[in-house]
Amino acid sequence: MDLTEPLAPDAPAAPHSASGERMELHDLAGIAPPARAAGPGRRWMPRRVVATPAAYDHPHGLRIMRRLAERGLEVERLSGNRLTGVRGETDRETYARAKSTLAIVVSPPSRRTLQPIAPSADWRVDLAEGCPAHCQYCYLAGSLSGPPVTRVYADLDDILEGLTAYAGTAKRRPEEGTTFEASCYTDPLALDHLTGSWQRAVEFFGAWDENVQLRWTTKFAGVDDFLALPHAGRTRVRFSVNCLSVTTRFEGGTVRLEDRLAALRRLALAGYPVGLTIAPIMALPDWQEHYGLLLDEVAHAVDGVPGLDLTAELITHRFTPGSKDVLTSWYPRTQLEMDESSRDRKHGKFGAVKYVYPRATMTALRTWFEQELATRIPSCRILYWT
Ligand code: SF4
């Protein structure tokens, strides 16, 4: 496989925001491992690390290699941009090998032109592509186009410098400045202990004296290295949260909800603007009770934080015909409800079909979340509902 080929298509897309309209679908039937139960907090360690020759020409590529060496990980220098030895005897083995491989590469030049990323931010900026976790509803599932090796970008310094041209282009929520979403095709805290890329991005935005904001969302909790960074309040870290019956059943390889909320509290105490990405909201039996417990846990986590700046992004579960095919082939025993007959069929902005909850369910969910957030966590601002 050619590591310069992006995993996800270069077309504008919003997979992690779950808006899903531009998801280009590829058939990955049969190449995913079975579902895994969500485990306790832990940090991903790849089994194999490779680097393209071009990655050695970039200071950040060398920084990543030093960081990996300190963790006892050996980096294999490739002779070109092609990665061999990923294919296994079966598709499943290929998938498992790819998911445990980290590649240090230079980002595709097309990524220098940023794409809008509604509704999360004005612009999408990629520092990596791929994720070692196994969420059974993963929005990336329909967007990947080959063995999902996680690629981290060696040309980080150039990527960050390139952002300066976009200052002053805020359209989405002007009060937050020009916003840059850095978790569209990856989970930052799943990888930052291996790359330091998001730490550098936080420092870059901290020193960038403009009305700008870096944003990302995560299901991990490794925030120790971020607490003392000079962030200047220009990075909003959101934690992707859900009720326990979703996090424990459908979010394999991520960290526990309580660890995410503890990490949110620590960042908030360190002065970061923080947020909740409540996604995907599922209309499970007794959903009010399940989500009520979640909101109470959040309220407890942010209790007494001075100057708390907390937002919520509320995203209901939806699927497309293609993403359903991919996900049910990746996770054949999944209990995830994807029943077209119980959903409303909608056409996204670009004509793609998606299945969302019926209008009455959507209204009930939305009304409940708006009321209960206002009651249980009054300081929390809702940024959008979808
Ligand atoms: S954390 Fe889960 S949903 Fe997010 S990219 Fe990784 S596997 Fe997908």
TrEMBL record:
Residues 1-15 have a biased composition (Low complexity). GO terms for molecular function: 4 iron, 4 sulfur cluster binding; DNA photolyase activity; S-adenosyl-L-methionine binding. Residues 1-21 are annotated as: Disordered. InterPro entries: rSAM_sf, SPL. It comes from the Bacteria. This is Spore photoproduct lyase. Keywords: Lyase. The keyword Protein transport does not apply. GO terms for cellular component: endospore-forming forespore.
